[in-house]
Amino acid sequence: MGPISFRRLTEGDLPLMHRWLNTPHVLRWWGSGVQTMAEVAEKYLPYITGAAPTEPYLILCEDTPVGYIQTYRINHWPDYARHIGVDDDTAGLDLFIGQPEFIGKGLGPAVIRAFLREVVFGSFGARSCVIGPAEDNHAAIRAYAKAGFRFWKRAVVPGESTPEYLMRITVADLAEERATP
């Protein structure tokens, strides 16, 4: 596994997002079924243009796109924020590895730690971050725990098929993890 980096999602990336969002391993946990190219554009163009308060990025491994990651201030999405209850300086984080050959290779925790340092706690300036996998997404929960997230609480969010298993990390937790030999 080579160096990990991130770049903002662009309109030119939407065909790649369309392909990834319709692969079985992404469909299982992300979205609500097969999506057309028009549906992908409708959802992600507002993120790309800044019309919606979510910052979208591609995950790059040796400059090759391998997945998608996004962050947002949870309180900028009031319906969601009402169900989980967080401070104003809390970011949310969502991601998936799109390229099947990168699944199960240990990439997730490294990607998350790098993104937290560079973007969420770096340029975005959040003080804590929450991620909410489905309770039965055991692989994601293990990856998030390896990245330093800890169980915080369960939340029932309307529109979600199962409760979210909310996990949380603070900027201090990440700094502490880096200081531990």
What does this structure look like?
This protein has 181 residues and is α+β, with helices and mostly antiparallel strands. It starts with a strand and ends with a helix. It is globular and about 35 Å long. The mean pLDDT is 90.
Relative helix content: 25-40%
Stretches with pLDDT under 50, minimum 5 residues: none
Q: Total number of helical segments?
A: 7
Rounded to an integer in angstroms, the radius of gyration calculated over CA atoms is 15 Å
In whole angstroms, the N-to-C terminal distance is 22 Å
Strand content range: 25-35%
Q: How would you describe the shape? A: globular
Strand order within the widest sheet?
Answer: 1-2-3-4-5-7-6
Query: Main sheet, how many strands, which sense, barrel?
Result: 7 strands, mixed
Taken in chain order, the helices and strands follow as EHHHEEHEHEHEEH
Report the oligomer.
single chain
What topology does this entry show?
Blueprint: E1 4-8, H1 14-21, H2 24-27, H3 37-49, E2 55-61, E3 64-73, H4 78-84, E4 90-97, H5 107-123, E5 128-131, H6 138-146, E6 150-155, E7 164-170, H7 171-179
Parallel strand pairs: 4-5
Antiparallel strand pairs: 1-2, 2-3, 3-4, 5-7, 6-7
